[in-house]
Amino acid sequence: MAVYALTGFSLVSLLSFGYLSWDWMKPSLVADVATDPMEKSLPPTFSRPPHIIFILTDDQGYHDVGYHGSDIQTPTLDRLAAEGVKLENYYIQPICTPSRSQLITGRYQIHTGLQHSIIRPRQPNCLPLDQVTLPQKLQEAGYSTHMVGKWHLGFYKKECLPTRRGFDTFLGSLTGNVDYYTYDNCDGPGVCGYDLHEGEDVAWDQSGKYSTFLYAQRVNKILASHSPKEPIFIYVAFQAVHTPLQSPKEYIYRYRSMGNVARRKYAAMVTCMDEAVKNITWALKKYGYYDNSVIVFSTDNGGQTFSGGSNWPLRGRKGTYWEGGVRGIGFVHSPLIKRKRRTSWALVHITDWYPTLVSLARGNLSNVPGLDGYDVWPAISEGKESPRTEILHNIDPLYNHAKYGSLEDGFGIWNTAVQASIRVGEWKLLTGDPGYSDWIPPQTLTNFPGSWWNLERLTDGLRKSVWLFNITADPYERYDLSDQRPDVVRTLLMRLVHYNRTAIPVRYPAENPRAHPDFNGGAWGPWASEDDAEEWEDIGEPLKSRNKKKKCKICKLRSFFRKLNTRLMSNRI
Predict the structure, then answer these.
(1) Is pTM beyond 0.85 here?
(2) Whole-number pLDDT of residue 4
(3) Among 152, 333, 393, 516, the one annotated catalytic
(4) Any idea where the Sulfatase N-terminal domain is (predicted)?
């Protein structure tokens, strides 16, 4: 039997604050908005391919939007969602690179070699070049394609850059997090560089401009200079609300009564981002795009509770495979939706946007077989059943193996020490170490001793390596049914075995000192030459494959490192 320990507060105290009374099905939070019944029968104006605006926010928690009962003001997101379709059974990945790679490729990360962690600034790694990306498919369909914001899919050589992967223009950062004003990013002590790029050049002249404002202004400029008669795709990947917690003072002032400093700054950043979305929507209407547009809003992973985010009442946080890490905020707003102003419980995953948007654009999917995503537009627009019945959250063979997992615990078919998670129908299975597992209420209070936010902690799960939940009946993952339903556990383990047979080797190469910004004019950017890139292509391949390479090539690589280390020592870096 699970034992729950409350730190700093009693259960009664939490209830008195309303934290445990949040009703999953409460009408005021997620139910359909009343509408004219005739409106649902109106056909969309779909005479030509729609303009597509995809907005992705960074580290925004599930609780951190007004229509989920948040204390943070998001009037624009609330209105757009209320007038469109809220996706309340929508899943993303628990960290940055995996979500972005699956959005751009329509494939699970086990099928791109990116199933472990993120792409780090000094790694010779990027989104595999053999993958046909979403913007490339939209270009084929006649779209003008633009990206504004955070890339985080690798940049060690020029072929990895957004402008080489399907985007006509790009303004944004290549790494995972930068200062919102100076655009500096440090990947360890003394390894710092500038990271704001315009196309393939460093945008030194934009330093000092708050990124949320800068990106919204760039979208406005793109729309003003393009003809609404020609289809356009804009991928807006806001840096907000990832750390560092920075916001213009006027937004922080609105939350001056919020006791927790991190939550106050975080709330200000969310509201600022909400206003940026308002400005983008206004520009769509001003320049004549809106009536033939589809706006998709998505978060990239769960909120980071140590930095002001909240996924309440879900379990876990960013970086975990609990619902708090993988269930996202999502909605679609469009005049082209047939059944507007409602909530959809259709199962949707971030990989589904690739085939859905390419189909909306009347593009060709026949030459990209093996996608893991589904076309879910009929489910969104018409309320039809989702074609998706299961989601592979991930299989990560490199993540620290759970101490108490074993092949025996996995019925002899799966090593439960391996971190993995899958959902099939209403059932969700986790194996290995799923990550931090507490339920963390919104951090609006202050002056609590110690780690006060761990208000409800599961204390007996440390020796486990298998969990099973009925997510439909138990969305907060409070009742582990793995012991009661071994039949379901075995069935889902078999699905993991099936997916694992299709996985390609993990690509997670060692960091290269040549990536240091000091060798690149003080900025993060491509550092490998064409010859170097060939050397690095081998890293991350299976051992047998690498052993087939000529010995002289290995010698050349070792010689390169010896010379580089000598140079680094002479520069005292």
Answers:
(1) yes
(2) 38
(3) 152
(4) 50-361
